[in-house]
Amino acid sequence: MTSQYLDLSLEIRGEQNEVAVIRLTRGAKRNALSDGLILAIRDTFQNLPDTVRAAVIDGEGEHFCAGLDLSELKERDAGQGMLHSRLWHSALECVQHGPVPVIAVLHGAVVGGGLELASAAHIRVADESTFYALPEGSRGIFVGGGGSVRIPKLIGASRMMDMMLTGRVYNAQDGEKLGFAQYLVPAGQAFEKAMELATRVAQNAPLTNYSLMHALPRIAEQSADHGFFTEALMSAIAQSAPEAKERVRAFLEGRAGKVQKS
Ligand code: 1HE
User: Fold this and answer.
1) What is the similarity comment for this entry (predicted)?
2) Does the chain have fewer CB atoms within 10 Å around its N or its C terminus?
3) The pLDDT value given to residue 74
């Protein structure tokens, strides 16, 4: 199944239609995020078919995403700017706290709002052409798509501060070491790797994936005492699911795979 929004395509893949491939299709503008494209991202993640268990987000052409569509910025006053930022927040919330884990395919420019979008994904696979920057500093603006909350969690506030103050650009190798991406692959191979990971992620019990996406980041924000308590609740709910019981039984009866040395 495929469907087409403005500057975005959705394709459902896999034997059980379990992987959604969402692609920004505005390559001529380096996938710059117009209001229409942000709305398409929000609506797509809100309305994924029930069969979908994992999603891959990719960008057409040589660059993942050039960030905010700067051509739409010039007419906004302060009130509209606030609402615009809140629109981004709601759209990227649908990516981060939507129904399924999201794997971002990074290549070329991952800059400004493009980095904010990538930061809302759960796994980032970068290829060697990737570079990361926050040019907001030099454009006289600030991040507005949740970057000040999500990016310090990946690389720390001091590195984000440096990127914005000095215009520092990180290449793919350094970006992976810092924590922007969990995987680094040769140029042109990020989509294939992301599909391999999505297929694997889609095999997990849905409740386990949901627990990871929704509980783990919240526990990280809690005090240790509250975190232990939330963990115990989540653990009890996950293990009580019939699917968890069956998976454990399958291992004990020799029907499930062992953990293999990498
Ligand atoms: C754009 C945008 C854009 C390209 N808004 N139109 N983001 C930035 O400050 C990054 C700005 N973009 C760039 O630095 C470069 O375009 C790239 C490094 C990403 C790619 O370079 P290149 O040589 O491959 O492409 P190009 O020739 O610069 O761009 C091709 C076209 O895309 C060109 O339009 P054309 O009509 O002349 O063909 C560009 O104007 C257009 N284009 N990027 C609008 N961003 C929620 S707040 C988030 C705040 C931010 O994201 S600020 C950071 C914005």
Assistant:
1) Belongs to the enoyl-CoA hydratase/isomerase family.
2) C
3) 73
Looking at ligand 1, which atom is closest to the CA of residue 70?
5
**What ipTM goes with this model?**
0.98
Classify 163 as helix, strand or coil. helix
The C-alpha atoms of residue 154 and residue 159 are separated, in whole angstroms, by: 10
80 in Cβ contact with 44 (< 8 Å):
no
Task: Give nearest CA residue, ligand 1 atom 15.
Answer: 66
Average pLDDT taken over every residue of the chain = 95
In this structure, what token pair is assigned to residue 49? 């078919």
Q: Which protein residue has the closest C-alpha to ligand 1 atom 48?
A: 113
Closest CA to 33 of 119, 103, 104, 91: 91
Assess whether 18 carries a catalytic annotation.
Answer: no
Helix axes 78-96, 113-120, angle to 10 degrees: 30
Task: List, in order of start, the domains of the chain with CATH numbers.
Answer: 2-201 (3.90.226.10), 206-252 (1.10.12.10)
